[in-house]
Specification:
Order of helices and strands of chain B: HEEEEEEEEHEHE
CATH superfamily of one domain in chain B: C2 domain
Radius of gyration of chain B: 19 Å
CATH topology of one domain in chain B: Immunoglobulin-like
Strand content of chain B: over 45%
Distance between the termini of chain B: 22 Å
GO cellular component, one term (chain A): ciliary transition zone
CATH architecture of one domain in chain B: Sandwich
InterPro entries (chain A): CC2D2AN-C2 (IPR028928), CEP76_C (IPR056288), CEPT76/DRC7_peptidase-like_dom (IPR056290), DUF5523 (IPR041510), Tectonic-like_complex_comp (IPR052434)
Protein name (chain A): C2 domain-containing protein
Shape of chain A: extended
Number of helices of chain A: 53
Pfam family, one (chain A): DUF5523
Distance between the termini of chain A: 140 Å
Shape of chain B: globular
Largest sheet of chain B: 5 strands, antiparallel
Structural class of chain A: alpha+beta
CATH class of one domain in chain B: Mainly Beta
Largest interface: A-B, 37 and 50 residues
Organism (chain A): Elysia crispata (lettuce slug)
Strand order of the largest sheet of chain B: 3-5-1-10-8
Structural class of chain B: mainly beta
Oligomer: heterodimer
Chain lengths: 1772, 197
């Protein structure tokens, strides 16, 4: 079939190619074919032409064909290089051939049929013969034609093509096909085949002979075969060709046919012979085809001619051509004849063969005669026999087959081949080997085919593909649709997040060690049980036995050593002896130590035993007394009698031993003591002697003196030898002096403390020692003869039934049986399950034995048990709460053991019946006199562990404790031992070291394990693990190492920028090449890192504390920052999309309406500015605009001073101008102003000031022009540029700016410095000085968050300003009291501050925070707050706040009365106490949350955190103050609202006898609610522990509000009747811990004070480095006195009388100065504050300074720092 | 910001070879354009980038989630979610790949999984338009019934399987839609190590 297809294909190709290859194909060739075709078709169409004609024509055709063939061959040679065209041409030719051949066949067939018909008619035998002939003709036909036609081709094709044509008519086809197949092969092949052809030719000549003989034989064979088949043959022909008309056939024809068949047969034989001959020349291809095709060609007959002689060959040679000639001619004739006869019948066939046209003819399928085919096959094919050949045949040559296996060699197992197949193969090879010698090499020595052993392994080596249906990795879990996500509480982010995590809580039992229902007997019984169990455990440990043995062992060793030393004393070197002696000493000390321990043990044992017996006795008496038994406890004491004698001996021995040892010890001690004593005694004696001598000397001298005195008096009387006397007197004087000196010396000796008379060491009182030891023995040892006692406790006593008991006892028992207990299990503060109530047994145990499986979705934070007791009804009483530890992930329910957790209750319960109650003192009626108070207590036997899933994996959430934890768990999985080290349990190497160093007693059973581990075989554990890690070639592909990447500076910077590290945040450009990065880029960062990790080295305790606080703060900051980093990246739509709102109709309408409105330029409407986002800002400058409108109540200069100046001036004799004029020089502008007013100039000009406002921000300053008088108006706009780090204008970085806008009010003073008055008319020489009057500090963040600050602010002025006073006239007489007080103390400044352009604010943090509050509460809080905010969007309401852990806490939890510090408690006056408290709180430094915690989050720290940090913002201050006030018994609330300048803030509201006061906790000031100048602008809500009151009044200014909190129309409460306050536990501590102020503290404060003073002095000198700075000591002294006074009155206005002192003493000076008060944070902040006042800025040398610092230390390191700086200029 | 591009343009000024500071960097900048072919809109997509151990993220987010997009008139959901991540790498093993989870938010605001998918990031520089086909696990019959009526659906117990599973072939899945990515890759210094991209 395949062949057919090929042919068809080639035909098609041909047709196409004809046209295609028109260029290549020879047109003549085409023509020729044409003509041939034409001729041929003519001959066909002529139809019934005679056979002769046909022959003729055929001949012609043959000739033509021959011509064509030769031409074609030529062409082919030409085109040999072009394979495809050649192909085509050959294909073409073949079709032609085929056609012609078909014709021939047909004619032959016809002839055959005719012949058959004839023969049918005649003899059967004859017919058969002819039929065979015909068959032979059929089969042989193609060969001759082909031989002729395609000789050239044949040479190539024949050796290759097997003559496997089974059916005669088909023969040409396969041959053709093969030819086609073989034609294409490339030239190389052909050339070889040509060579081959040559060789064949030569051979052929010799083979012809053989052929001939073979032919004959073949003929015979064929005949016999045909005979066999004849019947079938006939049948077939008869059936198949009935339509053929059988014509008569004449004899001639028959003869002809016979002849022809004969020849045909011959030819065929010849051909096969030829082929055969050729086949034995193996070429490459042949050898390849050896097994496939050519094989069949080897017929048996082939052997025959080989054997024949060469003569025959010769013959055949001659014969053959002739025969060929004949045959062909005859054949042709026969063919043509038959053709002619049959032509008419086969018209259709013609057309079919033409193929190109005509209708299709239907033909019968060819049916091959199977028998014929088979016989043909048999002839042609070789079937190797499947009979096994004998090994002998197969073995080469003469050698015997040799079986290696039998000889003992290993012969591999040969692969299995079926015997039949192997035999065939062998047979074939054997046959082969007969012709080709080499073929014999196929066999081995054993006559078997040489076969390699079976390469297949018996067992499969490939890992089996496990069909793991239980693969967990691909498991899926069905989830319901998830409603909410992202909550950090949840392990997997959502309620029904991923995994299953389960905790198993096992509540096993509770046993009470005391219960309020205990009867007295129970108490005793319990005590007894306890003692007994203690006794048993002690007995088990047997410490005293162990120690006794140890002692004896030690004694032995010591003795041995002692003996050894004694015996070897002479031989030992000094070092050795020392060594031995030390060892001996060691032994001795150890002996005494061990004995001590043993004694103690024994004593305890004995006391225990005693108390057991004692308790038992008590119990017995109690039972007797009450006449019933309550407890089953029964003690039995087993006695073991002992031999008294023996004991006594033992006792004595021990005693002696001990005495001996003691004695020895004592002797040693004695020796030492005696040496000391002797030494001391010597000294003592010496001193005594010295003293005596000194005494003597003194008395001597005195006597001498006296004598001399009398002598001189005598001398005077005698008055002679005056000269001598004089000399003597002089001498005396000298002597006197020396006497004095010596006397003093001696006196010193005498006075020297007499050395105590040393006590001689007591000699050993052997008796006493013995007594002592005996006493000891008596106390702790069993007396000799005393039986050994073994108490045994049993529960065998029968408890008397209730009926036998007293009424009280019956009641008690009833109560006990009624009592039931249950345990609630709370997970993260929520009840998750509770046990059923279980009855309390009479022995006060409760058994639960229940395991609760908690499937958890939240991270476990706490697991709490609550034990409840109920008397059968109601929910019962909470007995105790206890917490279970959250199990580590390694603790699973399989590995966990039950643990006893003790609990106790503080509840007081008293009963009227026999129950002893709890927390109540009771008395045993027996002989125990003392009262006993017992609390209900007991142990809960329980465990908590992680559950284990069905698959054996613990259901533990993995990332429990962050990355480190994860790593540890992972490591654990890899290497359990490493994990132990990782979790810090033990370091074995260190342990070993320690073990080696410490002489651990290896015999001590306690040390058993460790000794075993460290000395035993487990040493391997200590060896370093030699890992082998398989990561082949990994390094080869590494481009860089991890370290390189880690170290790369550029990467570091990029990473830090990405992490938004404060230093690198907003860092815009990172250079692309590393070398472009400055080397020190990370310097600052690293410095900061260092600072954070290690404590900065600062002097002083206080600063140290501050540094610690800073560190702590830093930590909190980091934590919070980390928490909010993600949130801060959440972008809103406005951040991304910036588009104007599309105007709607109303907007258009209003804007249209506006057109018609009258213009009112004098009433400008403030337009809302558009917010600018950071992106839109790009490159523009951001400015802070400060509009200073006016100031009021500014203090004015004092007249006094100007008088002084006046005086000074006049004293200098200035006669030029009047006072007024003179002053005009000083204050030129003021006079003019006053002139206009018309007020008498001379009186008031001195009181004036020339104030101006200076604004300083980020160290740049701007100022207004100077104003006039105490109430100047400026109306000036000041601009300051905002500098942002890294030019990052994003909200997050803006809010982190900590800079403060300092607004300072100064008085500008012009000082005339003209020295010479004569020049006054012509020269002006003045100096401008500015004097600080006050300041307002506004943090930038306040401006930023409020967008604008507008209003009148109180200027912070110092308590007093030297040289200035408040103008009393300013206060209007009609003003209220409040107003006047204000007018007196403070100045005000009206201003407006804003940022240009208006910056966008960070989005308030809206994400729901984790909380531990109840869901219900939070929900209500949210709803309540939302409702209020809807109503009053501008007011501040708060229900929950964030604590430092980043959790939401309900705000009322922050309130709890906290005991104020001792300073406050010391105040008796309540008002004063409040002020002190406020003062105290205000002295805690202020740091805004926004600065502390970037991100607009408001973190409320608790009071103890606040105290620990010692800084916080308004809330913390206010909360603390509120709590203090609450503790002081005041009604206090925290007020949340808006104030200026802080913006959103917290104040404290107190209510005292219907007078409401607002306290600013930050400054310590209080305002009446009616105060107009109260900075509070709006009140949002009031909060305290009880409730939250939200302001729902129309007004929000305090002065307009109603403070009646019960008025529900004004105040909306959070808790109301519908929602009651359940009393949330406070997060605040019960009390704050206050350090006691002791001496150390005072000295610390003093030290700080001095340090500040010193530093400030240095700083001022540094700032004024151009001039000399002199210090006025006197002034400082006065100031120092003043400062504590100021502290006392909390910085209020000071009485003038105090100042007078100062002023009096400095009349000749122009003094200007003021005190500054600030809380202590650190040194730099103090210097900053001083610097900002500009006191130092006196640009002259003739100025003196005074500086006083006072630090007032409050409890807990709260410091109030006062700095008084003043400048003094001596008046000339 | 992207000196990287400039850098490759002027190779002559390179630091001589062997300078240890040359390290390979990959910068991935692009967006998750959207998702199409899912049974419903109102989709959002959780994404993450997974890379081998030798890869260090210098800047950028490793994972994220898009908004929910519910276009009224189109068949695809558009996220235009930016991706910008900068890697430094030790070697080319473990080249980063992106994995996705597409979620669907239904009318009740509930979220259910619509598909998993992953793609390798391209290794050649330039802009690439990538489609990431997604699939989701099929559950049991009961599960699919419940899913049809109540929403939800089977999730992988171990989401790592999205990008690492050798056993993924055992999963029974349903093909879902495609996620469309537009990813720009900037490579740096790979040529120093003889890696041509």
């Amino acid at each position: 079939m395949a062949e057919k297809r090929k042919r068809r294909h080639s035909k098609e190709q041909l047709l196409e190619d004809k046209e295609q290859a028109a260029g290549i194909s020879n047109p003549t060739l085409d023509e020729d074919t044409e003509t041939y075709y034409q001729a041929f078709s003519q001959s066909q169409t002529e139809g019934e032409s005679s056979v002769a004609e046909m022959i003729e024509e055929n001949e012609r055709a043959q000739v033509l064909k021959g011509e064509l063939k030769s031409r074609h061959r030529r062409r082919r040679r030409e085109l040999s290089k072009l394979t495809t065209p050649k192909d085509d041409v050959t294909g073409e030719l073949k079709t032609v051939k085929l056609d012609s051949r078909k014709k021939l066949e047909e004619t032959e067939q016809e002839a055959d049929e005719l012949a058959k018909a004839l023969e049918d008619a005649r003899v059967a035998a004859d017919t058969s013969l002819q039929a065979t002939g015909a068959a032979d003709v059929e089969s042989a036909l193609p060969s001759p034609t082909r031989d002729k036609e395609v000789e050239q081709e044949e040479k190539e094709t024949v050796p290759l093509s097997p003559p496997h044509s089974p059916a005669p008519p088909k023969t040409p086809e396969p041959a053709e096909a093969v030819a086609e197949d073989t034609a294409p092969p490339p030239i190389l092949e052909r050339t070889t085949s040509k060579d081959e052809g040559e060789i064949t030719d030569r051979r052929r000549s010799t083979m012809r002979e053989r052929m001939k003989s073979r032919l004959a034989k073949a003929k015979e064979e064929a005949e016999t075969e045909i005979e066999k088949q004849e019947r079938d043959e006939r049948k077939r022909t008869l059936k198949g060709k009935k339509e053929i008309t059988f014509a008569e056939m004449d004899d001639l024809e028959i003869a002809k046919l016979e002849e022809r068949t004969e020849r045909m047969r011959k030819r065929r034989m010849e051909r096969t012979k030829q082929q055969e001959a050729m086949s034995y020349m193996p070429t490459l291809e042949q050898s390849y085809d050896f097994f496939t095709r050519e094989w069949e060609e080897e017929p048996e007959e082939a052997e025959v001619p080989k054997k024949g002689d060469e003569e025959e060959e010769e013959e055949e040679k001659e014969e053959k051509p002739e025969a060929e000639e004949q045959e062909t001619e005859e054949e042709r004739a026969a063919k043509e004849k038959s053709k002619g006869e049959e032509a008419a019948l086969l018209v259709d066939d013609q057309e079919y063969t033409e193929q190109s046209y005509g209708p299709v003819a239907i033909r019968k399928a060819y049916m091959d005669d199977a028998a014929v085919t088979y016989s043909a096959e048999q002839r042609m094919l070789f079937h190797p026999s499947s009979v096994r050949a004998s090994p002998a045949e197969k073995v080469e040559g003469e050698s015997e087959p040799r079986f290696l296996e039998d000889e003992g060699f290993y012969v591999g197992v040969k692969p299995f081949v079926a015997d039949k197949n192997r035999s065939r193969m062998e047979d074939r090879i054997l046959k082969e080997s007969q012709t080709v010698k080499e073929a014999a090499n196929w066999f081995g020595e054993d006559g078997q085919l040489i076969v390699l052993p079976d390469p297949l392994r018996e067992a499969p080596t490939r890992p089996t593909l496990v069909d793991d249906t239980d693969m967990h990795a691909i498991d899926t879990v069905f989830y319901k649709a998830i409603m909410r996500e992202f909550d950090s509480r949840y392990i997997d982010g959502a309620v029904d997040g991923g995994g299953f995590y389960q905790l198993d809580v096992d509540v096993n039992s509770i046993s009470f060690s005391h219960h309020h229902l205990f009867s007295r007997e129970h108490v005793l019984a319990h005590k007894l049980t306890l003692l007994q169990s203690e006794h048993v455990s002690r007995a088990k440990r047997n410490m005293d036995g162990f120690l006794t043995e140890k002692l004896s062992a030690l004694k032995n060793s010591a003795l041995l050593l002692h003996d050894y030393i004694a015996s070897h004393k002479g031989e030992m070197s000094v070092v050795d002896r020392d060594n031995y002696e030390r060892r001996l000493r060691d032994y001795k000390s150890e002996i005494s130590q061990t004995r001590f321990l043993r004694d103690k043990e024994e004593q305890t044992n004995r006391t225990l035993l005693k108390s057991i017996i004692h308790t038992w006795r008590e119990l017995k008496t109690l039972r007797e007394q009450q006449n019933f038994v309550n407890t089953p406890v029964k003690l039995q004491i087993r006695k073991e009698d002992t031999n008294k004698e023996e004991d006594l001996a033992q006792w004595k021995l021990e005693m002696e031993e001990e005495t001996f040892e003691e004695k020895e010890k004592f002797e040693e001690e004695f020796m030492r003591k005696e040496a000391v004593y002797k030494d001391q005694l010597e000294k003592y004696n010496k001193q005594a002697i010295e003293k005596e001598e000194a005494q003597k000397r003194i008395s001597d001298r005195n006597r001498q003196k006296k004598r001399r005195g009398s002598k001189s008096s005598k001398g005077s009387k005698a008055s002679k030898n005056s000269q001598e006397r004089q000399r003597a007197e002089a001498e005396d004087d000298i002597e006197d002096e020396s006497f004095e000196e010596e006397n003093a010396k001696d006196q010193a000796i005498i006075d020297a403390e007499p050395l105590p008379k040393p006590e001689p060491p007591e000699a050993l009182d052997e008796r006493a020692l013995k007594d002592q030891i005996k006493a000891k023995f008596m106390a702790q040892k069993r007396r000799p003869g005393e039986p050994k006692l073994f108490p045994e406790l049993s529960n065998s006593a029968t408890v008397s039934p209730s009926s036998q008991c007293t009424r009280a006892e019956q009641q008690r028992r009833e109560d006990v049986s009624k009592a039931k207990l249950y345990v609630k299990i709370l997970f993260n503060g929520k009840e998750v399950s509770r046990t059923g109530p279980r009855p309390l047994s009479q022995d006060f145990n409760v058994n639960f034995g229940e395991i609760y499986n908690l499937k958890i979705v939240e991270w476990p934070e706490s697991i709490k048990y609550e034990i409840y007791e109920t008397a059968g009804f109601g929910s019962g009483r909470l007995l105790a709460e206890l917490y279970a530890p959250i199990p580590e992930s390694s603790v699973t329910s399989q590995s966990v053991a039950l643990e006893n957790v003790e609990f106790s209750s503080y509840e007081k319960i008293q009963f009227t019946h026999d129950g002893v109650g709890s927390g109540v003192a009771f008395k045993f009626e027996g002989h125990v006199p003392d009262l006993v108070t017992l609390m209900t207590s007991g142990t809960l036997n329980s465990s908590v562990a992680w559950a284990v899933g069905d698959d054996g994996l613990p259901l533990v959430p993995t990332e429990k404790f962050g990355a480190g934890y994860k790593a540890a768990t992972q490591m654990k999985r890899l290497d359990p031992f490493a994990a132990i080290g990782a979790s810090g349990v033990s370091n074995l190497e260190k342990l070993l070291e320690w073990f080696k160093q410490s002489r651990l007693d290896p015999n001590d059973p306690n040390n058993k394990d460790i000794v075993y581990m460290l000395s035993g075989g487990d040493q391997t554990l200590l060896a370093p693990r030699e890992y082998f890690r398989l990561e082949p070639l990994q390094q080869e592909f590494d481009l860089a190492t991890v370290e390189e990447i880690e170290k790369n500076l550029r990467y570091k910077i990029i990473t830090l920028r990405d992490q938004e590290n404060p230093i690198f945040k907003g860092y815009q450009m990172v250079p692309c090449l590393e070398r472009e990065i400055p080397k020190d880029a990370l310097k600052e960062y690293e410095k900061k890192q260092r600072e954070e990790t290690q404590m900065p080295h600062v002097k002083g305790d206080l600063e140290h504390h501050r540094a610690q606080v800073n560190l702590y703060l830093q930590k909190i900051k980091e934590r919070v920052t980390a928490q909010y980093r993600f949130a801060s990246h959440q972008k809103t739509l406005q951040d991304v999309v910036n588009e104007d709102t599309v105007p709607n109709i109303t907007m258009i309408a209003t804007s249209l309406l506006r057109l018609s409105e009258p213009r009112r330029p004098l009433r400008p409407v403030r337009k809302e500015r558009k917010k600018v986002t950071a992106q839109a800002l790009d490159g523009k400058e951001v400015k802070i605009l400060i509009n200073i409108i006016r100031a009021s109540y500014i203090p004015v200069r004092k007249a006094v001073r100007s008088e002084v100046i006046e005086k000074g001036k006049s004293s200098k004799g200035v006669a030029t101008a009047s006072n007024r004029h003179h002053s005009d020089y000083l204050i030129p502008s003021s006079s003019a102003a006053r002139d206009v007013d018309g007020t008498p100039i001379g009186e008031t000009y001195d009181d004036l000031v020339c104030p101006f406002v200076e604004v300083m921000f980020q160290r740049s300053r701007v100022r207004t022009r100077q104003g006039e008088g105490p109430n100047p108006s400026f109306n000036e706009e000041l601009e300051l540029v905002l500098k942002v780090p890294n030019d990052d204008y994003s909200p997050s970085s803006l809010q982190a700016i900590e800079d403060i806008i300092f607004i300072n009010l100064f008085d500008e003073v012009t000082v005339d410095v003209l020295e010479d008055n004569r020049e006054r008319e012509t020269n002006i020489h003045q100096r401008i000085e500015k004097k600080w009057l006050g300041s307002i500090n506004i943090p930038f963040s306040t401006v930023y968050f409020n967008n604008k600050i507008d209003g009148t602010f109180r200027i912070n002025t110092p308590p007093f300003l030297l040289g200035y006073t408040y103008d009393m006239l300013q206060a209007q007489p009609g003003a209220s009291e409040v107003e006047t007080t204000i007018g007196r103390g403070s100045s005000y400044l009206s201003m407006f501050v804003t940022i240009e352009p208006s910056l966008s604010l960070p989005e308030p943090f809206k994400e729901k925070l984790a909380t531990t509050e109840e869901e219900e509460l939070i929900e209500r809080a949210d709803a309540w707050q939302a409702e209020l905010e809807k109503q009053f969007p501008k007011r501040t309401y708060k229900t929950t706040v964030m604590d430092t852990m980043g959790k939401n806490v309900f705000v009322t939890r922050y309130f709890r009365s906290i005991k104020p510090p001792p300073e406050v408690e010391a105040c008796t006056d309540p008002q004063k106490a409040m002020e002190t408290a406020a003062r105290y709180v205000s002295m805690i430094p202020f740091v805004a949350d926004t600065a502390l915690f970037p991100g607009q989050c408001d973190i409320w720290s608790t009071c103890n955190q606040f105290m620990k940090m010692l800084c916080g913002d308004e809330e913390e201050h206010a909360v603390l103050l509120t709590n203090y006030f609450l503790a002081m018994g005041k009604t206090a609330y925290l007020m949340l609202g808006n104030a200026i300048p802080e913006g959103q803030t917290a104040y404290v509201l107190t209510c005292d006898a219907d007078k409401y006061h607002l306290w600013n906790a930050r400054t310590g000031e209080s305002y009446s609610v009616h105060d107009n100048y109260c900075p509070i602008q709006s009140i949002g809500c009031l909060i305290n522990a009880e409730n939250i009151w939200a302001n729902i009044q129309e007004y929000e200014k305090p002065s307009q509000m109603d403070f009646n909190l019960t008025n529900t129309s004004c105040w909306l409460t959070f808790y109301n009747k519908a929602y009651l306050n359940k009393g949330l536990a406070s997060v605040q501590p019960a009390e704050l811990f206050y350090h006691r102020k002791d001496k150390k503290f005072d000295s610390m404060v003093l030290e700080l004070q001095e340090r500040i003073e010193q530093m400030l002095k240095n700083k001022i000198m540094e700032w004024r480095s151009r001039y000399i700075t002199r210090w006025n000591r006197h002034c400082t002294q006065i100031m120092r006195k003043l400062l504590p006074l100021l502290e006392e009155i909390h910085g209020k206005q000071i009485e003038q009388s105090h100042l007078r002192d100062l002023e009096e003493s400095f009349k000749s000076y122009k003094v200007s100065g003021f005190p500054l008060n600030l809380p202590f944070t650190d040194m730099t902040s103090i210097t900053e504050a001083v610097f900002s006042t500009g006191v130092h800025a006196k640009e002259t040398s003739d100025v003196e300074f005074a500086l006083a610092v006072y630090v007032h230390g409050y409890t807990n390191n709260v410091m109030s720092v006062w700095v008084y700086v003043a400048s003094l200029i001596r008046l000339r | 910001m992207f000196h990287t591009l400039k850098k490759t343009a002027e190779p002559s000024r390179r630091v001589p070879f062997g300078h240890s500071t040359k390290m390979a960097e990959v910068h991935v900048i692009g967006q998750i354009v959207g998702a199409s072919g899912f049974p419903d809109h109102s989709l959002f997509c959780k994404w993450g980038i997974h890379s081998g151990g030798g890869w260090k993220i210098l800047s950028g987010l490793r994972e994220g989630q898009t908004q929910v997009d519910n276009p009224q008139s189109q068949d695809a959901a558009y996220f235009a979610h930016p991706i910008d991540i900068h890697f430094a790498t030790k070697g080319i093993q473990g080249w980063p790949r992106m994995h996705f989870q597409v979620w669907h938010q239904d009318a009740f605001g509930r979220n259910e999984l619509y598909g998993y998918g992953f793609v390798h990031l391209p290794t050649s520089p330039g802009q690439h338009d990538i489609d990431c086909p997604t699939w989701r696990p099929t559950g049991t019959f009961m599960e699919s019934v419940s899913q049809f009526f109540l929403g939800g659906g089977p999730h992988l117990k171990n989401p790592d399987l999205i990008y690492s599973g050798a056993d993924r072939y055992k999963l029974q899945t349903i093909a879902m839609g495609k996620i469309h990515l537009r990813i720009g890759i900037i490579l740096r210094n790979f040529d120093k190590f003889g890696i041509e991209c």
